[in-house]
Amino acid sequence: MAKLPIQTLRSKLGKFASETSAIAAVEFAIVMPMLIILIVGGAETARFITTSRKITNLSSSMAALLAERTTAVALNDLMFTFNSTLVTFPQILKDAAANGVPWQYDIGVTLSSIRFTPTVAGCASGCTYKASVIWSAGSTGQRSCIVPPSSTPDATSPSLSTLPQDVFTSGTIVVADVSFTYRPVFGSRFVPTAVLKRSVYLQPRYIGEIDFDASGGGLGSLGKVC
User: Fold this and answer.
1) Which long-range contacts (CB under 8 A, 24 or more apart) does 99-102 make?
2) Separation CA 175–CA 133 (nearest Å)
3) Whole-number Å distance between alpha carbons of 225 and 115
């Protein structure tokens, strides 16, 4: 007696379910793409975190170099501070070469000195303050001498036109603004670039105000004295 079509189908499905000779290959084919994604994603995440930390360290070290000054800064002093990028963040050379630009233009570094004065002249207590730029230098941008930096909430992303509200007080500060465009190595067609921005604000440690000494040469295209 011939088997019914449904019985034939059940028989074949039973044999297929009991077959184990190719299970490992099928499982490998299913799991392998997921493993590759996890490995590549983990490597890219680690690279991003490392780069982010180095940008933070770079901005901190630059601000510290300025804050520890005992005299006004000159052009050579600023060039030394800018060039410290190559020590703290050496991979900038490789990234700049890949993008076909000098390293100074592959990363945004701006150094500035900021002065705070009371909004109301002669204020002695409970004062509010306004900021003004003393000087600012950077190969890819500087803080404005004309438009004073505005106060923004502390959690706001850093920019060359703002300062966090907590730094608005009497005296002066130095600021190191650093921005870098992170480009993923793996999956660059699917993962977008990310701009890492870090700004560090420090009060001068040994003198009241970090001025610019133009006796050895001005800032030229690097910046401006306000």
Assistant:
1) none
2) 10
3) 13
Q: Helix, strand, coil % (nearest 5) of the chain? A: 40, 25, 35
The alpha-carbon radius of gyration of the chain (Å, integer) is 29
pLDDT value of residue 2: 47
Average the pLDDT over 160-184 and give the result: 94
Mean pLDDT within 112-124: 90
Residue type at position 168 = F
pLDDT at 1: 47
- Helix ranges (H only) for 5-84 are 5-18, 23-67, 75-83
Instruction: Enter the tokens of residue 190.
Output: 């699917």
Domains of the chain by residue range: 27-225
What is the average per-residue pLDDT within 37-52? Answer: 82
Name every residue whose Cβ is closer than 8 Å to that of residue 139 and which is 6 or more positions away in sequence.
82, 104, 105, 108, 109, 222
The two most distant CA atoms of the chain are separated, in Å, by: 112
Contact 113, 212 (CB under 8 A): yes
User: 44 and 182 in contact (C-beta within 8 Å)?
Assistant: no
Tell me the pLDDT band of 94, cut-offs 50, 70 and 90. very high
The candidate with the shortest Cα–Cα distance to 133, out of 155, 111, 153, is 111
Beta bridge pairs of residue 179: 108, 197
